[in-house]
Every structure is written in structure tokens, then in C-alpha cells.
Design goal:
Chains A, B: It is an enzyme of class 6 (ligase). 2 copies of one chain form a homodimer. By secondary structure, the first copy, chain A, is an alpha/beta fold. Helix content of chain A is 40%, strand content 16%. The termini of chain A are far apart. Chains A and B meet through helix 2, helix 4, helix 10, strand 16 and helix 11 of A and helix 2, helix 4, helix 10, strand 16 and helix 11 of B.
């Protein structure tokens, strides 16, 4: 089901409707995802007792609707008599089992619901802030976690069925000292495992999930049903899509059925538990590691998120470059060309080539188009700052300030976004978008209140090379024609903010994406983040390209000496940990597709980290030996 | 000591210098704060193994420097052979005890350091994301937490001394099932408790800490030394000051010595443990609940934070209103008038009164001053948008967009900040500041890329009534003259973005601060956050003013009927949970003083939460009965 975060009323309505259909289709068990009543990513709304009472109330409505069938669903479980570690009322991330209008599950458990054992506390997850886990509850009750992991004994259609009721992370116990599924199995027999989840989409995660879950099922020989929600949820800085992709594994660990990703579906499966589902033939699930999955997640995420905040029309600054072109092609597909306004905002630095490309893109998309030059207003601003005297009130002396060429570049960028795009968006009746990609975000190659403005940064979790790949995918598979002009793909990427960035002379960005994309990826996406110390060590050992995954031989080609290699490394590291942090703090929400997007999953401080002692030793060695 | 987050090199240097001095003063024990080598708020830097190795390396330097005296200090404790729940290398928030160049503490413990038992997982804290607590370790080893809480047996100057080594939250066990101090005491005898902390300043927290700690000491009759760091640390969205305020409690729980808040001090105390410090007379500590503490925290925070990111000069937009005046007075005190550029940016809507007040403020502060009118450029923008045709490329038709009066207000605000202030700041060689207060931040009464821009929002954790109180405090106690013109304090607060906000006619903001400040406080600062359901229930019961803390009788006066009361409540709740969230996501870092500042301690999603079912029932009742 699609879960709307923070809306128990709407989610309950969806569930009641689906239950009605399930009943018509004579289902005996209906399974809804984790936290399907409250939603999952709702910030600190858990601290509102009014909201908690509302969740309980809607949970009761679902429980009352459990006549004729057994309903499994996720909700917050509340113990009003106890507190959590923060002194607030005790809350659990809970698995409810309702039948004949009543809750089951308290036969061998202190609550009429089961609770999550393993709470993810990495990436974007925040369970531990709000919920008390079984790992905390067990010692408090003088019991072992494993003893408390009992199956739920139900009677379904006259048959005794023992359910292993687990929540999301409980199925991913590899790194934990508690092995949830094994423990419930030990306390069995278990006839069916049910994992209810609220698991955000990450490129390639389902591929891994199928491997992990199949392996676990094999070790228990008990079928498992995985139920995940669809929709988008966000934690402010980052917007996550949920792909659903609910999956049924038979006792051999084979996938025998699944729901289409990103689609709300009432899927009925006839599962003879005596056969462990092994009478069903295995099916093949779509791979979720390719550009088609990236596109699907972005398309779904833009659609759901924009509409959820009331945005149906957008203004996009079109420079003729690749990022704005991909952005325009994506939004046009989601909102329709009639709701897209492309605007080209040339200054004296913009080439005829890119201006033409912007117009061509708009033609290809059949959207609204306009050109609003910025040169006059940029000149006005520079003149006003240069010509207006400043007085020192201590000594009465007057002086004038001067706009430097670098400052003038930022004035252009801000003029485009804060003046034109923001003004146009209001007049057009919508929002304007941020076209920044992940490579730029990493090192702050963007202007605050300039090209870093917008209501959503839909491309900001894609490295530049992924933006190019997506451009190709859009032309070839989605539009099936050259919507994004080939020339936009071919020209050198450039901000065109000065004559030093003249595309027609092949001049452009200071970032060399085929190398820096991979270097930046190592800084921010490696599970154990790579720091300059690691980079230098790999460089010294001649394994850098292999380690970071870029094309072999690239560093030799780019940096004739260690000195140049080091200067480049230090330049970008300083930006990544310095000015870029300041910019990201004020950046728009990022639409996540990767294993780590900027925002709540990349917690950072404006500390301007310097390098380690070992780094300086390695640097010294390298500079002295060459 | 002042801890620089993310800089083991600098922190180690400070510690070595202080150790030198301690040795000269013949100290036998030197105590440094929690995480004094790595710093505490460093985001996900803990995921860089290079950084972890660097922390270990610097920890060894301190250990080696522990000849002639016993050194207690905080650092990350690493078990390279184990993993945490996230699969990364196992890290502990650890208490190190060094003497004669060696680590002590593994006599009755699995590591040569002690680890934090209680990890705060509320407010801005993030311990659980990175560190494995004793509560997790104990069951893994098949032990109880309480058994593992053993004192450290040391020999100091020939005497056997048992130290109770605890970390920060371990001293605040009220809401936890584990009582750390009691458990160590039980495993005693303990001669001295040492609590090393990294505890950010919160208005009134020390007052509470002294009550909580004194009570615990009383129950054990063992003296306790509390050592906290000074400095600023941030987690991106929020900047925290650390006030130090290290305190010595004798066995009766009396305070016998303390360090001045916000000051790095090597404090020597002669503590005869056989006397339990009871031979010292109790001293009175400064109260930390008043405006003087607010001022001290802001002054210290601005100073340390601005300099840490390389900002020594600032541009401040001075409107003649209260927020910009207080901001200017604060920054001038920190950076000196020569580094402050005040700029007044009038449009046709700005009154002579406020223009004069801005000039007067600048005169009073003796800073740099200039006036940059915005009317011409605002007119240019409106004309450009209105006059530039847009073409629909599907049918070739042209049309024109129109800037509405409301959109024109935002154009003014953005023109001031993104065009003038940002441009001026670059020319002046510094940053520009955000003058937003907490009341505005709550409901998004500000323009994104407009008055919500800046490198720091120093007033954004103060309600409007606190801003006024701070204005009075600055004039009376800090400048001891009328620096902020009395008229600025007296006029109606107004954004002056249209003739509907004409201050000279007494027209101004739609927020009535004497009531809304308290309503908004209930939404966001109440430990159990109040929602409209609670507000309506209190209103119905006639206890609202008492519950939210505003002046009695105010709601009757403001809202003649329930209908008007409800309309007002719904208006602001919708903004607080809606548009204001979008704005806060892109707002500058907030300097924290209260128990909850915006940013990482106010986790939120763009969900546009609606109200609870119970709210609608109460509303229905109220509207029908009146």
C-alpha cells in the first residue's frame, strides 16, 4: 500500500478499502507494511501525544475491521505507563495481529503486539531516537531477547498456524549479536514468517535483500512473506521513495511471487503452508541495479513529492547544459509539458551554442519557453555596489567597495535563481527546481541562493557520469527520440560565468568528472569513508584507480607528478569538508537513489577538518621521493 | 579546555600544554573532558578509519605524557576486531585512565578504558549512531551491566584510590533502567567519582545539573568532579556552545569549586579524599537562567563559530527594526565596529522613521554604514517578468505572466539579501548574517533566499519577547547607553514590504507576539509537544493561558469567539508544519540557547500534517456550543 506519512486517517481509509477487497477475494490473512498507520519518516512527530493517541485510535479501527480475516499491520505500540530513555512515554515499533475484532499476540508476550528487535541506527534511520527495542526491554524484564522471540499462535480457517512476526531490520541481522529469525525459529515450530517493512528504495537493495532473505529462509525451511510500502517520505533534507516490491519466498528460499515496484497492489497468493509454497514455481524478479531503476525512482519521487507539497507547475532554468536538460526531461514526463516553463537567462558569457541548445530542448519538449537576459540587472548590481559610498562612522571617512570578477560570477548565479527563477515561479504559480548533481554538491561547485536554490534537487544523488547515462536513457527509452540534444551531451560541461569557461573554446568546469566522480564517491559513499590518508596510501601503492573504481591510468595522465596529485586532492577535500558543508546546510531537499544521499544520511559539521598525522607523513614521503 | 571538533592534533597540543602546567603546579590527577581528543559533534567523521587511527595515535601521545601524574581523558575507544550494529568497526565513547605512560582500567574490564553506559539519544545527541554502549556490550558478554560498572583501582602518591569513572549522561540516569553511579558505588568502595562530559550549553541546564548531581552525591557520600569542555561545535543545522562550568562537589553534595563558564581554565583543587572535600567551604555558582547567560552564550558562540569558519567581517541589513538592531549590537561587540557594515535598503514602503532608526543605530555603534535602495532593481525585476513574453511551444501562442502584490513582497526580500547583502559581503570580504528570530522561524514568516539567508542565524533560538529583553540588556548592561534606539524597541514590529505594514500607522506583523510566542513555544519546545488537539482542549477547559504561560485573559481579548480562536490556531499550525518546514530545510545554522533549537534537534519532514480525529471532534463541539 501507499503510506502517507503523518496521516493515520488516510492510511486507515486505504487499509479499510483494501480489506474490503481482500474479503471479497476470500483472503484469510491480510498483511500491511510496517508503520502503515502513522508513516515512518515523520521526524519528531512521535513526541506529540495527540498524534500517538490518534495512531492508537486508528489502530483500533483496523482491529475492529478484522472480522472474517486475520489482519497483520504495523503501528506504533504505546505503553502509557512506562517511559523511554528520554523520559517520554514508551513507544515501540510494533507488529499488530488482529483477528475477530481483537488483538492477538499477548499469549507469550507482555503486550498485545510484537515489537521490533533490531533497530537500524545508520543511514537515514532514526528508530532508536523514538522506539524502545526488544533488546532494551528484555534485560529490563530480566529475560533474554531470544526467549522473548516467540511465534504467535493463531487459528486460521480451523488450522493452527504459528506466525513468525518480524519487522524490517529483524530480517537483516548479519551485523547484530541477536539473530531474530533464528531465535523465533528455535522457539517454533513456525509455519510462516512475515516481515513487515518500511524500507526506502536504494539502487540495488532488493537484489541484496533477495540474497539475504533467501539464505535465511533456506536455513529455516519456512516460507517468508516480505511486505513493504510504496510512496515517498522525507526527513526534511532528503526525500526517499519506497518501492514496495513485496515478495513471497517459499520454504526453499525461492521467490514465488512479488508486487511490481512503486505500485500499490492488492496481491493475493494462495499459500498452502503444508506445502511451504514449494508447489509454486519460482519467478524471476526485475533487476533493480540499472538506469531503468534510477529513472523509475526519480520519476516516482518527483511525482509524489511535488504533489504532496502542492507543486504542480515548475520553472526550470535551462542553460543548454546537461543537468538542466535532464532535469527538464524528467519533470516534463512527470508534470506534462503544459506545466513546465523553461527559461534561458543569458549573460554576455553565454555562447550562441548553449543558448540554441536551450531553445532546442524546449522545442523538443513542447513546453513553455522564455528568455530573460540577466546582463542589465547584473551590471546594475555591480555598479550599485561599486558606486555607493560606505561611510566609516567612527572617523566619518567615506570609501568605496569593489566587486571582484569572482564575486561577479556569484552575482550572476544569484541573479538567475533568486531574482528571475523565484520571481517567475511565483508568477507561473509553482516552484522552481535545483539542477545540481552530486559531484557539484560534494565540493560546493555552486552558488548559494543561486543555482543551489529550488524546492527539490532531483539529480543531486547522481554523479555527473550518471547524469549523462540518464540523459541517454531518457532519449533512448523514455522519449524514444533525441529530446536532449546530442550536442548538449557532447559539449564540455561549463557554468559559463566568465570567459574562462567559454564552451566554444572547449573550456569548462574545473572538475574532471571521469576521475573526480570516483574520488568524491570514495570520500562520501564508501561504507568506511575514505580520507586523503587512504587516497594517498593507495596512490603510493599504485592501486588508487582500482580502489576508487575509475578508469586505469587516469591519474598518471591527469597529474604528471605527486605534487600535482596532492594539490588536487587537498583542493577538493578542503572544499568537501569546508565551504561545501556550509552550502549543503542551506541546500534544497535531495531525492535519494544511492546508498548515501546528502542530507540526514550524511551528517556533517562545519568543522573544516584537516588531515591526519599519517597523511602528512605520507605526503612528506611522496614529495621527497619524487 | 576548549575542544576543537575534528582536530586531534590541536586538542592534543592544548592538553600537553595544560599537562605541563599541571605538573608545575604539582597536580597528581589531571582531568580532561569527554571526547577531548576527537571532539564530539563531528557528524559522520567517525566513519573515516583514518580519523579513528589518528585519534588513537593522539591518545597514545597523551598516555605517554602521563609520567608523574595520572591523566584522565575522553577519546574514542576502538575494538578493531569487532563491529558495531552497522557493520563498521566497533567504537566506544570511552574514558581513558593513564599513569606512568600506561593505560589502566583493564584489571576488571575487557578494555584498557571504560565506556559510556547511558547514551543520550534525544535532542541533538547522536551517540547511538556511532558508539556501542555498555548496555549493548554486557549482554553480548553474558554479563549484567551493573556487574561491569566497576571502579578503577589506582595508586596515587602511594595511596590506593578507587575512581568511579563515568561519562556525561551516566550522571543523568533518572529516566534509565540502569543507575550508573549507584551501580559503581555498589561495587565500591569508591573514593572519587569523575564525570567527564561534552555537554552543550542550554539555558538553565547547569542549575538543573547541580540539583541532580548534588542529590546523587548525597546518596553515595562520595565527592564528584564534573569536567566539561568549552568551545563551539555544530552539527550543520545547529551551532552549540559548550560552557564548561566544571564543578567540584564534596561528599555532602555541596559545590566547593567551579570554573568560570565559557572560559578555558586550568583549575587546581586540593582535595583530601579522606575528608571527602568536606573541609572546603561551599561556594555559590552563578545562576544560568537569566538574560546574562543568553548574552554570554550568543556572544561566545558568534565569536567562536564565525572565526572557526574564517569570517571576521560581516554585513548586516539594518531595517530600523528590533531584530537587526539586536543583531548589529551583538556582532559589533564580538567583531569590533570596524568589521561591521550596516546597510539600509529602503523601498518605497520603508518609512522615514525606520530609515532614521537604522542610521541612528549605525551612529551609535560607530560602524561602517551605507544605504542601498532597492526600488529600481525591484521595479526592473517586476517589469522584466511582466513584459517578457512566454511562448507555449506546443501551439506557438505567446502570453505574459503577472507579478502579484504578494509575489512583489518576496521579490523585495530576495533583492535585499541575495542581490545586495550577498554582493556587498563578498566586496566587504566577509559574510552576511540572518536576523530571523524563533517566532518567525516557527511559522516561516520570512522569505527564502531573502531575509532567511545568511551564514548564521544568531537570534533564531530566541522568541520575539526574548529579543526585546536582550535589546534592553544590551543597552543597559553591555553598552551601558542607548545603542539600540528606544524607538526601535517601541515601534510596532513590521516587515515594511507593503503599505499594509506601514509602521507609522501602527501596522505591522500578523504575529501577535505576547500570545503567539507562547503558542509556538508549546508547539515546538514542550518536551511532549503540544498539538492543536491539546490547545483546543485547554482552551475549552479555560486553562490555555496557564498551560502555555502567556498573560491571563489574552485569548479572550484577541479572539472574541471560538471560531476566531480556531481559525488563528489552524492558520499557524498549517504554516508550522507546512511551508515553514520547507523554509527551515534551507535556513542557515541556528545558534542554540534553548532546550530545543531548530535544526538537528527538531527533526521534521515536509508532511503537512493534518489534525487528529479528536481535534476535529473538539472543534465541532466548540463551534456548535457557541
Amino acid at each position: 500500500m501507499e503510506v502517507i506519512p503523518g496521516r493515520p486517517d488516510l492510511n486507515t481509509r486505504t487499509m479499510l478499502k483494501m480489506l474490503e477487497e481482500a474479503r471479497m477475494r476470500q483472503a484469510q490473512i491480510a498483511i500491511f507494511p510496517e508503520m502503515c498507520i502513522p508513516g515512518y519518516l515523520i521526524g519528531d512527530t512521535w513526541e506529540q501525544q495527540a498524534f500517538l493517541r490518534d495512531c492508537e485510535r486508528h489502530g483500533r479501527i483496523i482491529t475492529e475491521a478484522s472480522h472474517d480475516l486475520c489482519v497483520l499491520f504495523g503501528n506504533v505500540g504505546i505503553d502509557w505507563d512506562k517511559t523511554g530513555d528520554d523520559g517520554r512515554v514508551r513507544k515501540y515499533n510494533a507488529f499488530f495481529i488482529a483477528q475477530n475484532g481483537k488483538l492477538h499476540g499477548d499469549e507469550n508476550f507482555p503486550y498485545p503486539f510484537r515489537i521490533k528487535t533490531l533497530q537500524p541506527n545508520y543511514r537515514e534511520f532514526d528508530d532508536t531516537r523514538h522506539f524502545y527495542s526488544l533488546r532494551k526491554l528484555a534485560p529490563e524484564l530480566g529475560k533474554s531477547v531470544e526467549d522473548m522471540l516467540q511465534p504467535v499462535h493463531m487459528n486460521i480457517a480451523g488450522e493452527s498456524v504459528n506466525l513468525g512476526c518480524i519487522l524490517c531490520e529483524d530480517g537483516w541481522s548479519e551485523d547484530y549479536s541477536v539473530k531474530t529469525i533464528a531465535a523465533v525459529h528455535q522457539n517454533g515450530p513456525v509455519h510462516l514468517f512475515v516481515n513487515i517493512s518500511a524500507s526506502p528504495f536504494t539502487l540495488g537493495k532488493n537484489n541484496k535483500r533477495n540474497r539475504v532473505f533467501s539464505k535465511q529462509v533456506e536455513s529455516t525451511s519456512v516460507p517468508l512473506i516480505y511486505v513493504n510500502n510504496v510512496g515517498t517520505q522525507n526527513n526534511g533534507k532528503t526525500v526517499y521513495t519506497f518501492d514496495g516490491f513485496s515478495t513471497v519466498y517459499n520454504g526453499k528460499g525461492e521467490i514465488i511471487d512479488y508486487c511490481q515496484p512503486f505500485t500499490q497492489t492488492l496481491k493475493c497468493i494462495d499459500l498452502d503452508l503444508t506445502q511451504k509454497g514449494e508447489d509454486h514455481s519460482p519467478v524471476t524478479v526485475p533487476d533493480d541495479r540499472g538506469m531503468d531503476s534510477v529513472y523509475q525512482a526519480l520519476n516516482y519521487g518527483i511525482d509524489k513529492f511535488a504533489r504532496s507539497i502542492g507543486i504542480e507547475k515548475v520553472v526550470i532554468g535551462a542553460s543548454g547544459g546537461i543537468d538542466s536538460a535532464v532535469s527538464a526531461a524528467l519533470y516534463t514526463k512527470v508534470l506534462g509539458p503544459e506545466n513546465i516553463l523553461l527559461v534561458n537567462m543569458p549573460s554576455i558569457y553565454n555562447s550562441p551554442t548553449t543558448k540554441d541548445l536551450a531553445a532546442k530542448l524546449a522545442q523538443n519538449l513542447s513546453c513553455q519557453y522564455t528568455v530573460m537576459p540577466i546582463q542589465e540587472s547584473v551590471d546594475y548590481t555591480i555598479k550599485q555596489i561599486n558606486d555607493t559610498p560606505v561611510v566609516n562612522l567612527k572617523n566619518g571617512r567615506q570609501f568605496n567597495l569593489t566587486v571582484t570578477p569572482f564575486a561577479a560570477e556569484n552575482i550572476q548565479a544569484r541573479d538567475r535563481s533568486s531574482r528571475v527563477l523565484a520571481g517567475l515561479a511565483a508568477a507561473f504559480g509553482g516552484g522552481f527546481v535545483c539542477n545540481a548533481n552530486k559531484s557539484e554538491m560534494t565540493v560546493g561547485y555552486s552558488t548559494l541562493y543561486g543555482d543551489l536554490g529550488g524546492f527539490l534537487a532531483a539529480l543531486a544523488d547522481l554523479w555527473k557520469h550518471q547524469v549523462y547515462a540518464l540523459a541517454g536513457y531518457l532519449n533512448e527509452h523514455i522519449y524514444q527520440r533525441e529530446v536532449i540534444p546530442q550536442k548538449t551531451i557532447d559539449i564540455v560541461p561549463s557554468a559559463e560565468l566568465s570567459f574562462d569557461q567559454a564552451v566554444e573554446q572547449g573550456k569548462g568546469d574545473p572538475i574532471f568528472y571521469p576521475y573526480h566522480d570516483y574520488l568524491f564517491h570514495a570520500f562520501m559513499e564508501d561504507w568506511n569513508r575514505s580520507a586523503p590518508e587512504d587516497i594517498l596510501d593507495w596512490y603510493r601503492q599504485g592501486v588508487l584507480e582500482e580502489k576508487i573504481g575509475c578508469q586505469p591510468g587516469l591519474t598518471k595522465q591527469l597529474f604528471p607528478s605527486a605534487r600535482e596529485f596532492i594539490a588536487d586532492l587537498e583542493r577538493w577535500w578542503k572544499l568537501y569538508t569546508g565551504m561545501a558543508v556550509a552550502k549543503r546546510i542551506q541546500a534544497p531537499p535531495v531525492l535519494a537513489v544511492s546508498r548515501r544521499a546528502y542530507g540526514f544520511d550524511h551528517r556533517e559539521a562545519q568543522n573544516g577538518l584537516l588531515n591526519t598525522a599519517r597523511y602528512f607523513e605520507l605526503k612528506e614521503q611522496l614529495l621527497n621521493t619524487i
